[in-house]
Predict the 3D structure of the following.
Amino acid sequence: MPSDSALALLTDRMRLLGDDLRGDLGARILRLRPGADGWRTYAAVRARGPLVRSRRGLLFTATWTTANAVLRSDDFRAVPTMISGRDPADEGFVHPLDEAFFSLNPPRHTELRSMVTPWFSRNQLKRITEHLDEDTDTCLRTLAGRRSADLVSALAEPVPVNTVCRLLGLPHGDMPLFIRWGRTIAAVLDGPRSRVELHRMNQVYAEMTRYFRGHASAQRQAEGIVAGLAEGCPRLLSERDLIATSGMLLLAGFVTTVNLIGNALHTLLQAPGYRAEAAGDWAAVVEETLRHSSPVKYVVRRACRDTDVEGHTVAAGTPVVVLLAGANRDPSVFGRPDEFDVRRRDASRHLTFGAGIHYCLGASLARAEAQTVLRRFFERYPGATLAADATPRQSRVLHGPARLPVRLTGP
Ligand code: HEM
């Protein structure tokens, strides 16, 4: 006999299927197979209008001007993921995404964001990025003598994890722990698909809470963001704020960047012609990858009052799913949007890092990481080719390869 919750899940799936068959594009997006790219569905949303209503009460947009307007408007608020089976008052459990400034709104968002902004200044980033060549080369040395490898676990994952360790001031020896946390959370960002996944997710959040509580009190004299925040605790921020901000920065710092690096490597390995076209302009390759293959497919906002977006009325309380990946392929902004074109001049107009007050703090860092990895990898292995099809990450939010098998060919 199926349980009540299994029946509820089944009924909901049937309803979603029914809505999709009746032409509800929102239902079609919610039904996309995890790992499917979704470009055709996003184009269908855009073709139907700037804001498309789903029978579930959500609005969707894949139009660049509308997405940009929603993200920059004071009439919309960031919303927490609300994916947790735990009591938010539970002292032993801080939710690193829902309780961090990423999900908060002014004035608290502004206060907490301004406490970490100094670590993303040009000088601070220089201090971090000067290690990128060395970190990448350390990863490349693990490939020496091998004829094939998975570039996600060998390169795309460890470089951003190393970088975020430097930024936060965390021990590099804990990288395997962070990688396990990142993989678990990346898989459930669009909602756990089973009780087992929900349990694993909550276990990771509880481990992260314990880790940062212990680390912050032990490392007050150390360098990096966690120690810096610990100095201001409890005067400027509570212990919960400290744990949530540290956990969010750790996750935001690499579960996204691993996909940017993976997508760029994948594109260049799939079509070696692009490498010749790019002629070493790695900045252009990274910018076009960000536009063409956004590692974050969407973000959500909620209208905090009745408002008007590009002539469309949006009622207070309505959630809007901003399809960043769809906006980045809006033909009214980007010519031939489905083509990967490294010579495109306007690629940087993409919305991959969001827009407005929540604009990604790590955008410059992510760009520098991806450019270094591409440069060092193709200098060392100019003839590398795909050894088999990449395995897409099983997610509806994140877009990138989970495995990228390559044949390694040197100069
Ligand atoms: C390719 C890599 C990355 C992508 C695609 C990405 C994407 C995004 C997006 C779309 C947002 C806005 C979320 C929203 O509006 O709701 C965001 C916010 C943020 N990102 Fe990134 N990110 C990347 C790398 C990084 C890195 C390396 C860091 C830090 C080490 C970072 C830290 C943050 C933070 C702190 C926020 C919250 C900003 C706020 O709410 O004020 N990100 N990111």
